[in-house]
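Why predict the complex rather than its parts? Because the way molecules touch one another can change local conformation, and only a joint prediction can capture that. The input here totals 878 residues.
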Amino acid sequence: MLGTERDLNYKETELCLGLPGGGGAAAAAAGGENEVESSPKTTGKRGYSETVDLKLNLQSKEAGMDLNQNHENGTKETACTKDPAKPPAKAQVLGWPPVRSYRKNIMANQKNSSDECTEKAAFVKVSMDGAPYLRKVDLKMYNSYQKLCDALAKMFSSFTMEGNYGSQGMIDFMNESKLMDLLNSSDYVPTYEDKDGDWMLVGDVPWEMFVNSCKRLRIMKGSEAIGLAPRAVEKCKSRA
Amino acid sequence: MMNYFPDEVLEHVFDFITCHKDRNSVSLVCKSWHRIERYSRRRVFIGNCYSISPERLIARFPGVKSLTLKGKPHFADFNLVPYDWGGFVYPWIKVLAETGIGLEELRLKRMVVSDESLELLSKSFVNFQSLVLVSCDGFSADGLAAIAANCRFLRELDLQENEVDDHRGHWLSCFPESCTSLVSLNFACLKGEVNLGALERLVSRSPNLKSLRLNRSVPLDTLQKLLMRAPQLVDLGIGSYVHDPLSEASNKLKHAIQRCKSIMSLSGFLEVAPRCMSAIYPICGNLTTLNLSYAPGIHGNKLTKLIQHCRKLQRLWILDCIGDKGLGVVASTCKELQELRVFPSDPFGAGNDAVTEEGLVLVSAGCPKLNSLLYFCQQMTNAALITVAKNCPNFIRFRLCILDPVRPDPVTNQPLDEGFGAIVQSCKQLKRLSLSGLLTDQVFLYIGMYAEQLEMLSIAFAADSDKGMLYVLNGCKKLRKLEIRDCPFGNAALLEDVGKYETMRSLWMSSCEVTLGGCKTVAENMPSLNVEIINESGQTVFNLDEGQKVDKMYLYRTLVGHRKDAPESNQTYLKCRGDLTRSDHHEPSLNDMIKDMKLKNISGDDDFIISESNNFKLQSQLFEKEEAEIMILKWKRL
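Output of the joint prediction:
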């Protein structure tokens, strides 16, 4: 009933698992040596996959699985891997691996916020219209637009940035007229070239996204930045 | 021949006996020794807070000054125990306070600690000096504020891996100006901001401060200032370590670190920019302990370069992103290494960077003093384990966790029975073992045969039948804690020798084959055991029929019967018929009891529960001797 008898030496390379439950427990409880010896290994090794299956609500295994059968059902493949080097996508079994939940939480949080620290520094060139030479900044050293602009202001002391930074540290371009004012003034406006080679207005996207996509910075006069405005204005309209 | 010494002399002799096990043995020699040991006992260790009551503790040891308590079962660390299961410290503190005990030190592990308890603690014991909380929960920064404010002679506040609600960070400011006694301050596990100015002032006025572990919110410039004020530090935990190596801040830091010539233990780096590690190199040569297991940002070359500076390391905790090659560097550099822990950097599944058997073999070859291991890895082979067993016969703790828990030896496709068998056969001092990988009953046969000193065994997804569990229960005479999950062990194994559980602290079985009927049988026959059942489905025991499997069973010996604080919701425990003082039972003779104790090797326990239990029985019978005879020094092996 539980399929082909299992060879204790596991000569078959497939680690296929048959039905759990019933037979194994009964055999164990019976206490008879023969039954225990010959009963196919059930819940022990099956336990893991069974647990995974139950938790994923995969289809229940069919009885009488032959170890050498190719399984039509794709889900079985996760239980019967031939290639241990490529572990199947793991479902999470409760409490495994046995890592203290405190540690798990810390590592999960660190994964989310670690990009700033674990990747290489993001040095980008900064040019300012009218300045005789360029500078470089490491975007990873800052965690908001405000901090970046403060740093840029220090670097280019004749440069002051006017901008209304919202809660996310992003320039608040909600106000269309404010935007037009800014662009019409002689104040400087920070812009950047992104991965696609487009020149964008700094401040539209969340900070992390900006850091990942910014290739170089250019601080240009507001009047020159008007060409970039249509995109910003569109975004403004779509948010309103 | 002198028949006895005056009490004061014996007390002085007993002062030299600090190990719990030995003190328990001493107390069983005769009435007089029992009495003297009792009154001179200062430190008590209670491995399961439900095995005894605070009242009985105080009745036995009225002079207790230091108490260690453990609450939840070990698997609670992995979310297998409901949050409201129990382990409350409040009742203990309340009773100790009410009876006027001069408590000075409290060490808790896996207990629920409310702010109320902390406040009561801080106000009840004038001489309170040391609070150590490991893997606890239930408190907030308010509780810490009470400790800071009220414990005038506080020397140690050590918070390790606790879940703390610390939304308000003012607790540090609560240390009064008059508090200058701090020796150890560890708040690395707190998530919130702390008052940096208060921290600086506190460190400045603590000339005895030897251990300081900061949390993530403490920035670099504060770290630098703290180091300038406390160059005498021996143990440092760095919070945030992000700086530009070319900046002035970095230079100042380097200078500050170099002044700290006593630092032997380093940890933290909870936030790190790895290119700044060179500032640490000057102190690496003295390090005996290094914990980088919360610093995934340090890996690759930066990590190995750092380790190459640490020639004196005895204890190393790292993440598996070190890789097998990195472990090779450890092997060639750290010849004094005794303890290695390699944690998974991706704790939710198999990481791509995980280490394999190769790394472990390298370390075992290069570090002959290795005696303690916790190793999370992708895979393991029998050959590797056999080699490791040969290279390192001194293991006391061997915990192997293969991320896929039923993975066989990838080279031979065999189970890992032979490999672990080699470990237990070679490592004759092995006290703690955790198994993983594909395992049959065979490995348990080996464990039962060879692991004579084994005290704690953790099993998951292993074995084929009840035989596995029986091999262990029959063979491991010194077993104290057995925890099993997802194994095919059922009633036959559970019920074979229920008396055995009285010699153990606890047994945990979850997702096994044990039924309600089996649990009931244990409870009904063993009044000295509490049998608790936790059913996930929310069904109480009364809705289960006897043939149904229980989700989780936790049984433990106790002298005080059922606890009153178990949650009603999804847990129940089984009452046995009768209680500890059954009068319808034939009282065993003293000789019977001593024989029984010898058979069960009871006196080898490290907490005093069993000796207390025996005293309870023996005192009613009279000791054979009122006073000890000097010639009979059998107190080590009663």
